Amino acid sequence: MKVGFALRSSVFHPSLIVKVAPLLEAARVYSVWFPDAGMPYDALDLCAVALGSTRRLRVGTGVIRAGEQDPARLTTRVRTLSESSKGRFVLGLGAGRASGSEAVQGVVALAEKVRAGYGGGRKTPIFFAALRGGMLRAALSSADGAILNFCPPSHVEKILPGGAARSGFTLACYVKLFFSKSHAAARRMLVQEFATYNGYPSYHKMFEEAGVADAIASPGKGPSKIPDRLLEISLPNPTKEEVAQLLRRFARRAWTFR
Q1: For the domain that residue 104 is a member of, what is the CATH number?
Q2: What's the total number of domains in the chain?
Q3: When comparing pLDDT for 122 and 9, which is higher?
Q4: Sequential DSSP letters for 115-155
Q5: What are the strands, taking DSSP E only, across 7-125?
Q6: Distance (Å, rounded) from C-alpha 227 to C-alpha 214?
Q7: pLDDT-derived band of residue 258, with 50, 70 and 90 as boundaries?
Q8: 246 compared with 17, residue with greater pLDDT
């Protein structure tokens, strides 16, 4: 298992990323990912900033929405990032608010168009953002990896065909940690993050399938009453050992990581 960080540009200004990315590389962090939804800066441009200030760090979009991309323009930008970084760029694609089979097909179609434009250049790894079985199955057949967000390990085992990913396939799992000088504030941030994502239909369905929707809707009386089911996915003000235990729960599952 390798460790990466997601840097939200709502928190990390581009001028700060230039300083943070080399520090993460020096700390032997494997990868950095830039979310796009609701962010004030372009994820692909931020990837260029991080790649340009490092030499070994893998950098990816985590993720950009397929329905908002012009295939020809995206292919050119992907080729530029891949060639200039000697293959360290990873393209993360998602369906955004779209759902159903058409959304899955749209992500697959865009990935195919980007690959068709490679020519003789480097083949950029492409990951799909997967919340449920349909997109995960599409990733297994049409992508190099999948990006999972707010998915408890037990849920992934239910939707992963055969119980394990194919050889060479990468599962990247976002594990969200919330820190504050106030423990109550850290817990409130965790609960609010779940509530925000639960407002998206695709996430709500995933939370229902994972068996945590009720816990999100009724998190308990006060910020100190976070249901155990939610603590399988995210932690407020964790210690180093608590973070290690959480990561081990993911790593123990029968998946292929690299």
Answers
A1: 3.20.20.30
A2: 1
A3: 9
A4: HHT-TTS----EEEE-SSHHHHHHHHHH-SEEEEES--HHH
A5: 31-34, 58-61, 64-65, 89-94
A6: 10
A7: very low
A8: 17
**Neighbour tally for 25: CB within 10 Å:** 18
Residue 89 near residue 59 (C-beta atoms within 8 A): yes
Above pLDDT 70, what percent of the chain? Answer: 90
- Both tokens of 248, joined, read 């081990």
Q: For residue 225, what pLDDT is reported? A: 59
pLDDT-derived band at 64 (thresholds 50, 70, 90) equals very high
Dist CA 200 CA 38 (whole Å): 13
DSSP secondary structure letters along 189-238: HHHHHHHHHHTSHHHHHHHHHHT-HHHHH---SSTT---HHHHTTEEES-
Residue 141, domain member (yes or no): yes
Q: Does residue 184 lie within any of the structural domains?
A: no
Q: Are 114 and 80 in contact (CB under 8 A)?
A: no
pLDDT value of position 256? 42
Written as six digits, the tokens of 185 are 């504030």
Residue 156 within a domain:
no
**Has residue 153 got a pLDDT over 80?**
no
C-alpha span between 208 and 159 (Å, rounded): 13
Rg (CA), the chain: 18
Kindly report whether the peptide bond that precedes residue 63 is cis, defined as omega within 30 degrees of 0.
yes
204 assigned to some structural domain: no
